[in-house]
Each structure stands twice: as structure tokens, then as C-alpha cells.
Amino acid sequence: MAVARRKTNLRLVVGAIVFAAAAGSGLGSTNAQQLAARVDQQKQNSSPTIRPGVAMAAASPSTLPPTSDVKPARSFASKGPYYVDFRARTAASYGHAFIWYGKTTEKKVEVAGLHPRGDTLPYILGHVTFVPADTGASYGDLDEQYLTASYRVYLNEADAKKVFGYIKHLQANSPVWNVETTNCTSFIGRVASFMGLKTPFHLIRPEEYVNQIKALNGGRQTVHLAPN
After folding, report:
1. 106-163, pLDDT tens digit by residue?
2. How far apart are alpha carbons 190 and 212 in whole angstroms?
3. What is the distance of C-alpha 48 from the center of its chain?
């Protein structure tokens, strides 16, 4: 009987230990799954992607889980469902100014900017003459680690259609680049002026240019175009 009791007690102790371990493991697994889901969500929000034929970059997710991460998206939507983001990044020399634009609730955005077509030689020649230009994304435009300045403003749908149409018009009608005249800052400055924003003189570094646009307009976050 004593032996049987000891065996019974041993089984109870082992069972309790196994149950506690299983319960602990279940909790750990749940926390790990929740943490992994949050990490995956953060990666989706920050990782730039490109759609075939159009330079695209990550902005904000189209769908979000019912967590506190939803709050920023709702805040953006309250400012306007569309946006234009004036941006500057590092480069081998002066830096580069360009634009992200798109819909607030979508992950992908379009990129527009004026830069010399090709590699080093067109860039050098562009200091003394006009050289062929491209107006899409260039190397580094999609990478947040190169970003030096950003000024985002929000638009309603009707105004966004006009602004986005104007950006595409500029892209189609900006065939050349020159360091002093038709350069990257003058390109984004024309978009800002079309939107009714004040702009500084364009012959300054891209980072300073973007920051000055923001300062000259008091950091305003919404834009409404004047009636035609």
C-alpha cells in the first residue's frame, strides 16, 4: 500500500509539472505569435516595394489588424485621403529632391523626380549644358535610410486628381536636366507652386530646399487648391 501511494503521489506530481509546463508553453507560444504578427506588420509598413512599370514605395497598409496601429492611419485619413510628400535624400554630391505621392490608405506610392539619364558622364556634362533626363525614381529614392528631409501635405480627392495630373504632365514634358536651371529642386518646386505653396529659390541643397518649403508654409499639413 505504501508503495502504491508513493506511485500515486509521484504520478500526481509529474502530472502537475507537465500541466504547468504545457500551460507555460501555451502562453509563451501565444506571446511569440503576437510579437511575430506585430513585427510582420511593422515590416509591411516600412518596406518599400515597386510595382512593375511604375516606381513605387511603401507608405501605409491598405488593411490593418484591430490594434492601436490603426490610429495613425485614421489620423492621416482625417487630414486627406491623398498626399504629396516632398523629399530629399543623400547622394554622391549635392543630394537629390523628389516626390512621393499617392493614396493615404494604400501601401504603394508613385515617385517623381528630375535627374540626368545615365551615370557619371551625363551628370558632369549637366554642369555646362543640358543633358537628357529621367523623371521617375532614381537609386535611393525608395530607401528610408538615405532620407534627409520630408514635408508631407494632404489633399482631398478632387484636388489630388489635379495635382497628380500635373505631376504626370511635368514628367512627360521635362526632357532635359541642368544643374542650375532644370534641376531636381526646380522640378518639385513647380509642383509645390501648382499646389499653392510658397517656395524658396531653387539653387540650394535639396535638404534645405524641402525644409524651407515646410517653413515658408508654416508646416501646414493640408492643401486646398484655389477654384479655377
Report:
1. 988 899 999 999 988 999 999 999 999 999 999 999 999 999 999 999 999 999 999 9
2. 15
3. 7
Instruction: Determine how many CB atoms are found less than 10 A away from the CB of residue 164.
Output: 19
* 108 phi, psi to nearest 5 deg: -100, 140
- Distance between CA atoms of 134 and 20, rounded to whole angstroms? 64
Which residue carries 514635408 as its cell?
151
DSSP state of 183: -
Helix 184-194 / helix 206-216 crossing angle, nearest 10 deg: 20
CA angle 124, 206, 135 (to 5 degrees): 65
Q: CA–CA separation, 25 vs 27, rounded Å?
A: 5
- Phi first, then psi, for residue 163 (nearest 5°) are -65, -45
Q: Who contacts 54 (Cβ-Cβ below 8 Å, separation ≥6)? A: 110, 136
DSSP string across 181-215 = SS-HHHHHHHHHHHTT-----SSS-HHHHHHHHHH
Position 18: which residue type? V
Please state, in angstroms and rounded to a whole number, the distance separating the CA atoms of residues 51 and 53: 6
- Closest alpha carbon to 126 in 116, 111, 118, 136: 116
Q: What is the 3-state secondary structure (H, E, C) of 153-181?
A: EEECHHHHHHHHHHHHHHHHCCCEECCCC
Which grid coordinates belong to 172? 512627360
Report residue 2 as a C-alpha cell. 505504501
Length of the chain: 228
Query: Is the overall model pTM greater than 0.70, yes or no?
Result: no
